[in-house]
Amino acid sequence: MKERKVAVEAHNITVAYDRQPVLWEVDFEMNEGNIIGIIGPNGSGKTTLIKTLMGVITPDSGYVEVFGAEINRVRDQIAYVPQRESVDWDFPASVYDVVMMGRFRKNNLFHRSNTNDRKIVRESIEKVGMTPYINRQIGQLSGGQQQRVFLARSLAQEADIYFMDEPFVGVDAATESAILELMTTMKNLGKTLIIVHHDLQTVSEYFDEVLLLNTRVIDYGPVNSVLTDDNLKAAYGGQLNVLTKVGDLLKKREFPIREKEFKKRSKS
Ligand SMILES: Nc1ncnc2c1ncn2[C@@H]1O[C@H](COP(=O)(O)OP(=O)(O)O)[C@@H](O)[C@H]1O
Ligand SMILES: [Mg+2]
After folding, report:
1. pLDDT for 257 beyond 50
2. How far apart are CA 164 and CA 38, in angstroms?
3. From atom 10 of ligand 1, which residue's Cα is the shortest distance away?
4. Among 24, 48, 165, 236, residue to substitute to test ligand 1 (most atoms within 8 Å of Cβ)
5. Where are the chain's structural domains?
6. Which of 8, 52, 124, 169 makes the best surface tag, with the fewest CB within 10 Å?
């Protein structure tokens, strides 16, 4: 069997905004070839974490390594699918243009596309089922279609690690299954997928491993060992409506759970 390499390692990362810590002593190693979910409540630091792992945010302390190297040396191996709501959709660009951006590298700003780039761009658009819309302006697409365009752009980068921020939010069922299918294909190619996600119901279906975050790492590992009663309470403690959902989830999965406690809490 092929030995797994460490893809991403975080060493004691702390990030603060206005002195308020958003990530606290975050420390882990993620192996290549897995589909890893980063889950946690709103504002728990998920987006900040993946931006730090990609080197977009510099931590106040600690450091990140990707494939055993400093991020700047392996940037070409990293692709990013941003949270959809963080994108300016009025930007005048077609589907083809946006996906072609995936071929432009940092040190190649005035890069002219060659035959190979154009081929990869067309293939990437085809893989997400967007060929019929190739000349459409991105602002005119539905949420699901926009998400697919960003996936295609990341595919065109031919990276080894893919960071995606809530790719399932606001997409239609067809896009959801297109994304899931792509995830499996990419995993089979040995890619590492690190995906921010907030729907607890689908975690075990989508991911091999999950990192449960709330400023600190509550737990990280295979889905079933992380999604325990205690861990979920530690992560979601104060959030009553979420807790009710967690209660439902735990019941379904038959984790040991003291149901009364959830009822008591949700009334107060
Ligand atoms: N640029 C910023 N300046 C100040 N505070 C920020 C900034 N970005 C995020 N935050 C705060 O940091 C916390 C974590 O944010 P974020 O990483 O976006 O969480 P998540 O993605 O889990 O919802 C939130 O309280 C948020 O308000
Ligand atoms: Mg976020």
Report:
1. no
2. 10
3. 17
4. 48
5. 6-227, 238-268
6. 169
Q: What is the pLDDT of residues 1-28, one digit of tens each?
A: 557 799 999 999 999 998 899 999 999 9
- Please write the tens of the pLDDT for every residue from 29-45: 999 999 999 999 999 99
Report the atom number in ligand 1 closest to the C-alpha of 198: 22
Report the topology of domain 6-227. Answer: Rossmann fold (3.40.50)
How would you label 58-77 residue by residue, b for 16+ Cβ within 10 Å and e otherwise? ebeebebbbbeeebeebeeb
Nearest to 220 by CA among 68, 62, 39: 39
Q: Which atom of ligand 1 is nearest to the CA of 166?
A: 21
Listing from the earlier edge strand, what are the strands of the sheet with 192-196?
A: 78-81, 161-165, 192-196, 35-39, 209-214, 216-222
For 64, the token pair is 């990140």
Token digits for 148? 């697919």
Q: Label residue 19 left, alpha or beta by phi (over 0 means left) and psi (-120 to 50 means alpha).
A: left
Predicted confidence at residue 87, as pLDDT, reads: 72
Give the end-to-end CA distance of the chain in Å, rounded to a whole number.
53
The residues, any chain, with a CB within 8 Å of residue 67's CB and separated by 6 or more, are: 5, 6, 7, 32, 74, 77, 160
As a whole number of angstroms, the distance between CA 153 and CA 125 comes to: 8
For residue 159, which of 214, 213, 234, 106 has the smallest C-alpha distance?
Answer: 106
Cβ atoms of 182 and 127 within 8 Å: the answer is yes
